[in-house]
Amino acid sequence: MTETWDSAGYIASSRYRLTVCEYLSKNGSGLPSRIAVETDLAQPHVSRALSELREQGIVELLVPDSQQKGRLYGLTDLGELAYERVALDNRVELSVVDSDEFPAPELIEELESKHGEMLRAIAWCEPDEVRVRFSSQEVLNQYDEDTMKTIVSTLVNQDSMAESLDNLPAGAPEFIVFGLEKALVVLIPLEDDTDLLVSVDKSFDRNLENLTETCLEVTGATVLDADD
Q1: 100-136: b (≥16 Cβ within 10 Å) or e
Q2: Contact between residue 92 and residue 124 where contact means Cβ atoms under 8 Å apart
Q3: What is the pLDDT of residue 228?
Q4: Does the CA dihedral 74-78-81-85 come out positive or negative?
Q5: Is 2-87 assigned to CATH 2.60.40.1190?
Q6: Long-range contacts made by residues 171-178, C-beta under 8 angstroms, separation at least 24?
Q7: Distance, CA of 38 to CA of 49 (rounded, Å)
Q8: Torsion sign over Cα 171, 176, 177, 178
Q9: How many CA atoms lie within 13 A of 189 on its CB side?
Q10: Quick one: fold of 94-227?
Q11: Which Pfam families does the record associate with it (predicted)?
């Protein structure tokens, strides 16, 4: 189950990978040149996306590897499940905000003081609105708006995952960690249908449980105030 969600996040984190998977899902298979023409993507972007997706086991080559022409690609079983996971998610209303516009500005201050450059972004996710605070303009520049919406929708809309985890002997966890290409994203369910997404650098080597505890402690008062 986790592999499917990690793969979904990997697809969602690049508009090129997302577009290629969408094409393969609709058409069953495709040649790089044909995918490029029909999606209006430059062929180098398509070729790179296919290579990346193949390395992750999301896409497979349907002809012998030695065949240089007519290299036909299709989604693997994992790729089909992962893309379906992305495609089912609804796009959210998302806005990039400064610290003072974030629902819990004290959380940003606390995490930045503890984790500094390891912190990439924090997203406050309500059913109809998501507010994201990026740690720097450099990180923000790595994502276009559609990609951000797809990532957030894919990770937050995890009802079927929660249902599966609830059936485990240990019950549902307090947080779920997703691996993206350049980051780890920690999903922390709060109260009142609100979720928190905390993105940290892929090389983050600190205790994620402590990170989660900090988020729950600092946001507790904010969520209670919203209920009043």
Answers
A1: eebbbeebbeebbeebeebbbbbbbbbeeebbbbbbe
A2: no
A3: 43
A4: negative
A5: no
A6: 174/212, 174/216, 175/208, 175/209, 175/212, 176/5, 177/208, 178/5, 178/6, 178/9
A7: 15
A8: positive
A9: 13
A10: Beta-Lactamase (3.30.450)
A11: DUF7522
Distance CA 213, CA 44 (A): 44
200 phi, psi to nearest 5 deg: -125, 165
Cross-strand pairs, 8: none
Q: Is 128 helix (H, G, I), strand (E, B) or coil?
A: coil
pLDDT at 157: 67
What one-letter code names the amino acid at 75?
L
Helix (H, G, I), strand (E, B) or coil at 204: coil
Write the pLDDT tens digit of every residue in 149-179: 778 877 776 554 555 445 555 444 578 888 8
Positions in the chain whose pLDDT score sits under 50 = 1, 160, 164-165, 170-172, 221, 223-228
| Sign of the CA dihedral running 19, 154, 185, 137 | positive
Place of tokens 């998610």: 89
Return the sign of the alpha-carbon dihedral for residues 166, 193, 216, 199. positive
Q: Which two tokens stand for residue 8?
A: 């979904």
- What are the φ/ψ torsions at residue 195 (nearest 5 degrees)? -120, 150
Pairing of strands 119-125, 176-179: unpaired
Q: Would you say the CATH fold of 94-227 matches that of 2-87?
A: no
C-alpha–C-alpha distance, residues 40 and 150, integer Å: 20
Query: What are the structural domain ranges in the chain?
Result: 2-87, 94-227
pLDDT at res. 173: 54
